[in-house]
From TrEMBL:
This is Dihydrofolate reductase. Pfam families: RibD_C (PF01872). GO terms for biological process: riboflavin biosynthetic process. Coiled coil: none annotated. GO terms for molecular function: 5-amino-6-(5-phosphoribosylamino)uracil reductase activity. The lineage of its organism: Bacteria, Bacillati, Actinomycetota, Actinomycetes, Pseudonocardiales. Residues 4-181 form the Bacterial bifunctional deaminase-reductase C-terminal domain. Transmembrane segments: none annotated. PANTHER family: 2,5-DIAMINO-6-RIBOSYLAMINO-4(3H)-PYRIMIDINONE 5'-PHOSPHATE REDUCTASE (PTHR38011:SF11), DIHYDROFOLATE REDUCTASE FAMILY PROTEIN (AFU_ORTHOLOGUE AFUA_8G06820) (PTHR38011). It comes from the Bacteria.
Length: 187
């Protein structure tokens, strides 16, 4: 069975983006970036992979699940992760490319369980906070890239109501940049 992994950057005060969805305040230089590129090249969108000359095979994920807001970031691509099977959760989105499947919110839990039952690599949960909150019972692993910044307001790591879920810390790594990668698995 495959895992659903929520891999996300966050501020010290628990936000994954500014109120407008922007992520420009996070650190994009430093030794943590080399680790990200080496360990999670499949979690990078096509434009980042191209800009950094990354042509590595998928090692962690073969499927991505994202919310409409993450999919439709300004300047985004119609098919941002062509190296993965792409699913966008939305009740209003239409007109996506053939390699991007839209999943209505009401069908999401069943779709995630179906994807997890398939053979293959893990499933990358790529923002946002509302989508993550709706999937807490299905999340098997959290990989939090904690940046040494305080945003004060923004989109929280989990935005909405969900049942209490217990996770166990599996690994923590601190980088010279001040960024900390902490991995948790479902208890």
């Amino acid at each position: 069975m495959r895992n659903l992994t929520y891999l996300v950057a966050m501020s010290l005060d628990g936000f994954i983006a500014a109120p407008d969805g922007g992520v420009g305040d996070f650190l994009y230089e430093g030794d943590h970036m080399a680790a990200l590129f080496e360990e999670y090249p499949d979690a990078l969108p096509a434009q980042a992979r191209e800009a950094f000359g990354i042509d590595a095979p998928n090692t962690n994920f073969d499927t991505i699940l994202m919310g409409r807001g993450t999919y439709q970031v300004p300047g985004g691509l119609a098919s941002p992760y062509p190296h993965l099977r792409q699913y966008v959760v939305s009740d209003t989105l239409s007109g996506t490319p053939d390699d991007v499947e839209v999943v209505p919110g009401s069908e999401l839990p069943a779709k995630v369980r179906e994807l997890k039952a398939e053979d293959g690599l893990d499933i990358y949960l790529c923002g946002g906070g509302k989508l993550a909150a709706s999937l807490v019972p299905e999340i098997d692993r959290l990989v939090l890239k904690i940046h040494p910044i305080v945003l004060g307001k923004g989109i929280p790591l989990f935005d909405g109501e969900f049942p209490v879920a217990l996770f166990t810390k599996a690994e923590t790594r601190t980088f010279g940049s001040g960024v900390v990668f902490t991995t948790y698995t479902k208890a």
